[in-house]
Amino acid sequence: MLKRQGFGFSENFFVFQFIWITFLFLTHLVSQSYAVIFGSENGSSIGSFAMLNLDNEANIPAWYSACALFLCAVLAGVIAYSRWQMHNGARYKWAGLGIVFAYLSLDESASFHEGFIPGLLRKLDLGLVPGVPFDWAPFGMALFALFALIYLRFWLKLPPKTRFLFAISAGIFLLGAVGFEKVSHFYEALYQTENTLSYVVTCGIEEFLEMFGIAIFNYALLSYICENIGFVSINNAPQQRAFAKEQLVR
């Protein structure tokens, strides 16, 4: 059972996430810098170094990111379930949020946005040139803008703390996913290789910011559960409705 006040558990879990992503960031910097300095192509020929590269798929950092995104989906689903029991109108928005993050977790594991989507667009003859890397950033920003528009009223009705944390989470994530990705791609184009310290550092910052943004979002969801729901079980609908009467309309 989660305590209603939410002090302690959600904060401690956030600290755990921060320590873990900082560890992943530092191991990336050390291992990939070593790989660059001693002539290995991003650690791919030095055994386990590739498993520490934040820019690689199907390795330890990617596994963590997929799990963190899936946790977002689970927590949003818990909130949706509790709101469903209380017949709260926001239940559909919470359920939709859970579905979106479940897809993002799957995408992190299967890399749809780097493989399947560009391939599909090329098959549909939408102007993509074979051999030229697909710049997904404008496509992703357009989807995010549509998502933000759909969820604007929902976001405005959230408690101030949750609303603030959601905004900060999105801002930090986009700073990494769009801002620092452009910087890392600049260095890649400048030196015609990813095997440079500049690329290793900027790519590491990009991925760190993305993971940090998701950590804040998980903290926001867990805090919301602790402070506005208290606990969830199959048979506690009457207790949750009583608890909801004590809260502002959310």
What's this entry about, in short?
The chain has 250 residues and is mostly helical.
How is this structure best described in words?
This protein has helices spanning 9-37, 60-85, 91-110, 116-123, 137-156, 160-191, 197-228, 237-245. The protein is mostly helical and 250 residues long. The protein has one domain. The radius of gyration is 20 Å and the shape is globular. Mean pLDDT is 82; it is low at 1-6, 42-46 and 236-250.
What characteristics describe this protein?
250 residues; mainly alpha; 8 helices; globular; disordered N terminus; disordered C terminus
Element-by-element helix/strand order? HHHHHHHH
Beta-strand fraction estimate: under 5%
- The proportion of residues forming helix, as a percent range, comes to over 70%
What do the pLDDT scores average to?
A: 82
Overall number of structural domains: 1
Secondary structure: elements and pairs:
Blueprint: H1 9-37, H2 60-85, H3 91-110, H4 116-123, H5 137-156, H6 160-191, H7 197-228, H8 237-245
Helix pairs in contact: 1-7, 2-3, 2-7, 5-6, 6-7
